[in-house]
Design goal:
Blueprint lengths: L10 E10 L10 E8 L17 E7 L13 E9 L9 E4 L7 E3 L3 E9 L8 E7 L2 E9 L11 E3 L3 E2 L11 E9 L3
Antiparallel strand pairs: 1-7, 1-12, 2-3, 2-10, 2-11, 3-4, 4-5, 4-6, 7-8, 8-9
């Protein structure tokens, strides 16, 4: 936000459309999808643990593809959030799958509307909010997150990066399409 002469908000909305290509098939590990961040180049990614005063992130995540889990035995890929927050268990972020209301399993070659909302916690409280919708259906909500213990941390940016995570590279090229991106302060 500040790089584009906008005040950094404490809450924001983010919407994008995504389509996994025909060649999308996560067989080795999951990875990262677009999402919110306030790392300030200090913490909240890459094993840089969030402690409430150094940074945080709440980007999207995908897991290994599931063979035959979708209608007609189609391959699906579960999605969710990968979150660096004050209460994470280790140096890497927490993975929270989107499982509410039937969950979020993406089929290849189909467009989906992904919407996310974040509201940072009041410092000292565990009232941070993270919500997600898939095609208008709420699939995730957590209302007790501690992202920060200082008002200095805000929603700094939205990351649009997508990558295969873990220590091993994908054994083949995979395609993912993103379109119609909207970042806003209100729905």
């Amino acid at each position: 936000f500040s790089k584009n002469d906008h005040e950094e908000p404490e809450e924001a909305y983010f919407r994008y459309y995504v389509r996994l290509g025909n060649d999308w098939n996560q067989t080795i590990s999951g990875g990262k999808l677009p999402g919110f961040a306030g790392t300030y180049s200090r913490a909240g990614w890459g094993g840089r643990r969030a402690n409430g005063s150094n940074g945080w992130s709440a980007r999207g995540a995908f897991q290994k593809s599931i063979q035959g889990a979708g209608p007609g035995n189609l391959r699906t890929t579960p999605i969710g959030n990968y979150v660096y927050h004050m209460d994470q268990k280790d140096h890497y972020g927490s993975i929270w799958g989107w499982s509410k209301s039937g969950g979020a399993l993406l089929q290849n070659n189909r467009w989906y509307c992904v919407e996310q909302y974040i509201k940072l916690n009041n410092p000292g409280d565990d009232d941070g909010i993270l919500r997600a919708w898939l095609d208008g259906r709420q699939v995730f909500e957590r209302t007790n997150i501690r992202f920060r213990k200082t008002n200095e941390l805000k929603v700094q940016e939205v990351w649009l990066n997508v990558y295969h995570g873990g220590g091993k590279v994908s054994p083949y090229n995979q395609t993912l399409y993103i379109d119609n991106v909207v970042i806003a302060r209100e729905y």
